[in-house]
Amino acid sequence: MARTRRPLIAGNWKMNGLRTDALALAAGIAKGLKQAGWTDRDLLVCPPATLVMAVMEAVGGSGVLVGGQDCHAKASGAHTGDIAAEMLRDLGAAFVIVGHSERRTDHGETDAIVRAKAEAAWRAGLLPIVCIGETLAEREAGNTFSVLARQLKGSVPAGATAARLVVAYEPVWAIGTGKTPTTAEVADAHAHIRKELAGMMAEASQVRLLYGGSVKGSNAAELMAAGDVDGALVGGASLKVDEFLAIAKAV
Ligand code: PEP
Question: What is the predicted pLDDT for the residue at 41?
Answer without folding.
Answer: 97
